[in-house]
Automatic annotation (TrEMBL):
A biological process from GO: siroheme biosynthetic process
Domain named Siroheme synthase central: residues: 124-144
One Pfam family hit: SirC_C
Full protein name: precorrin-2 dehydrogenase
Alphabetical UniProt keywords: NAD, Oxidoreductase, Porphyrin biosynthesis
Enzyme superclass (EC): oxidoreductase
Pathways involved: Porphyrin-containing compound metabolism; siroheme biosynthesis; sirohydrochlorin from precorrin-2: step 1/1
Matches recorded under InterPro entries: Met8-like (IPR028161), NAD(P)-bd_dom_sf (IPR036291), SirC_C (IPR042518), Sirohaem_synthase_central (IPR028281), Sirohaem_synthase_N (IPR006367)
Gene Ontology molecular-function annotations: ferrochelatase activity; precorrin-2 dehydrogenase activity
Reactions that this protein is recorded to catalyse: precorrin-2 + NAD(+) = sirohydrochlorin + NADH + 2 H(+)
Keyword NAD tagged: yes
Database matches in NCBIfam families: cysG_Nterm
Keyword Kinase carried by entry: no
């Protein structure tokens, strides 16, 4: 297996093409939903679970057989059919500068989708590079428990706090110290308890130089 380079892509307003209308295509659509990508689904038919998603303004269904021109200007391409011949045709039509993922793991694969746990701006991705999808799913479930929904608010607070600290403190070492103190485990506990105000009080204590408690 090729050593893959992990990266988070900004797909906002970029064209993404999914060739296929079955379960794999549905999985790719669900993974893409948090983005603002312009998604094109190319397939004569789609399974029932995909139909409600087609109401979203950034998703278009081309109810037809695949043609090379369907890939024009696409940044990301998924060959997600159960037909090796169709997936071959998609690969052949893909330009060298376009990124391709084949669901059947045949021939050219420029990227694979990791399993993702998303809590607002907090994103954890895990992959076994295709070696064991079962292990990937198992670890994802464990991460979903470890990093619950409270992490969305926790990271949002840290983001706001970082901006405030950067504006209030000019000395780099002092700023670094304060940002490190914001990783005190009590902040996450306060957020889990619904006490976000205590987090802001803690931040103000740090900024004023008061002893925190």
């Amino acid at each position: 297996m090729t050593n893959l380079f992990p990266v988070l892509l900004n797909l906002d307003y970029k064209k993404v093409v999914i060739v296929g209308g079955g379960h794999v295509a549905y999985q790719k659509l669900m993974a893409l939903l948090p983005t603002k990508a312009n998604i094109i689904v190319v397939s004569p038919e789609v399974q029932d679970s995909i139909v409600p998603l087609l109401e979203k303004p950034n998703i278009t269904w081309r109810q037809k057989v695949f043609e090379p021109k369907d890939l024009d200007d696409a940044s990301l391409i998924f060959a997600a059919t159960n037909s090796e011949a169709i997936n071959d045709a998609v690969e052949e039509a893909t330009q060298h500068w376009q990124l391709l993922s084949r669901a059947d793991a045949q021939s050219r694969i420029d990227f694979i989708n990791p399993a993702v746990v998303r809590r607002g701006d907090f994103v954890v991705a895990v992959s076994t590079s295709g070696a064991s999808p079962s292990l990937t799913r198992k670890i994802k479930k464990e991460l979903e428990v470890q990093f619950d929904e409270s992490y969305a608010q926790y990271v949002d607070f840290l983001k706001q706090a970082r901006d405030i600290v950067k504006s209030a403190i000019t000395d780099r070492e002092e700023r670094k110290t304060v940002l490190q103190q914001l990783l005190d485990s009590r902040l996450h506990e306060w957020i889990q308890q619904g006490n976000i105000e205590r987090c802001h009080q803690y931040l103000q204590q740090l900024l004023s130089g008061e002893k925190t408690s």
